[in-house]
C-alpha cells in the first residue's frame, strides 16, 4: 500500500482549513485516512505559530515507514525541520508564452515604424522650414536685380529727356 502525507480540506466555502494526514494514495482527497498528524490554517498570518501545527514524531515515523509527502507537506516538514527539501528551480517560469512574445514583437515593430514615420515627418518639416527661408532670399535677389535694372533704364531715359 502506497502511503501519502497530504492535506485534507475542511472548513466552509472560501474559509479553508486543512488537516495534514497520512492516507492511502488511492483514497480521495477528503476521504478515509490512516492518521491525522497536524493542521494547516492558511487564513492565519504567516508568522503565526498556529498556522502550521505538526506532530513531528509521528511525521518522522511515517516518513521512515515510506510515506511520500506532497509538495506542500514537504514544505511544512522542511519548515519544522523534520525533512530537508531541495529547492526547485524553474527558469522558464518567468518567461512569457509564445503569443505574448509575438504580441510584443508586433508592438515593437509598430512603435519602430511610427518612430521612423515621425522622424521622416520631422526631417521633411525641417527641410520645408529651411528651404523657404533660403528660397525667398534667392528669389528676392533676382527680383531686386530686375527692379534695379528696370529703374536704371528708366533713370537713363529720364536723364535723356531732361537733357533733351
What does this protein look like?
- With 164 residues, the protein is an alpha+beta fold.
- The protein has three helices and five strands; from the N terminus they run E-E-E-E-H-E-H-H.
- The chain has helices at 56-65, 71-80, 98-163, and strands spanning 3-12, 15-24, 35-40, 52-54, 68-69.
- A five-stranded mixed β-sheet has the order 4-3-2-1-5.
- The termini are far apart.
- The model has no long low-confidence stretch (mean pLDDT 83).
Q: What is the element layout, followed by pairings?
A:
Blueprint: E1 3-12, E2 15-24, E3 35-40, E4 52-54, H1 56-65, E5 68-69, H2 71-80, H3 98-163
Parallel strand pairs: 1-5
Antiparallel strand pairs: 1-2, 2-3, 3-4
Short description:
The chain has 164 residues and is of the alpha+beta class. The protein has 3 helices and 5 strands, in the order E-E-E-E-H-E-H-H. The protein has a 5-stranded mixed sheet with strand order 4-3-2-1-5.
Tell me the distance between the termini.
140 Å
The SS-based structural class is: alpha+beta
Proportion of helical residues: 40-55%
- Mean of pLDDT: 83
Largest sheet properties: 5 strands, mixed
Helix count from the secondary structure assignment? 3
Strand content: 15-25%
Count of extended strands:
5
Q: Low-confidence parts lasting 5 or more residues at pLDDT below 50?
A: none
Radius of gyration: 44 Å
The order of strands across the largest sheet is: 4-3-2-1-5
What is the general shape?
A: rod-shaped
| SSE string | EEEEHEHH
Amino acid at each position: 500500500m502506497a502511503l501519502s502525507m497530504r492535506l485534507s480540506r475542511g472548513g466552509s466555502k472560501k474559509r479553508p482549513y486543512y488537516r495534514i494526514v497520512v492516507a492511502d494514495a488511492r483514497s480521495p482527497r477528503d476521504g478515509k485516512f490512516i492518521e491525522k498528524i497536524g493542521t494547516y490554517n492558511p487564513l492565519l498570518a504567516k508568522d503565526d505559530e498556529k498556522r502550521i501545527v505538526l506532530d513531528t514524531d509521528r511525521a518522522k515515523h511515517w516518513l521512515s515507514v515510506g510515506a511520500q509527502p506532497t509538495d506542500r507537506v514537504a514544505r511544512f516538514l522542511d519548515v519544522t525541520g523534520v525533512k530537508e527539501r531541495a529547492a526547485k528551480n524553474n527558469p522558464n517560469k518567468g518567461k512569457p508564452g509564445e503569443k505574448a512574445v509575438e504580441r510584443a514583437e508586433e508592438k515593437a515593430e509598430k512603435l519602430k515604424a511610427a518612430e521612423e514615420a515621425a522622424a521622416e515627418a520631422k526631417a521633411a518639416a525641417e527641410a520645408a522650414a529651411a528651404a523657404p527661408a533660403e528660397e525667398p532670399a534667392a528669389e528676392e535677389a533676382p527680383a531686386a536685380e530686375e527692379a534695379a535694372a528696370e529703374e536704371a533704364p528708366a533713370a537713363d531715359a529720364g536723364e535723356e529727356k531732361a537733357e533733351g
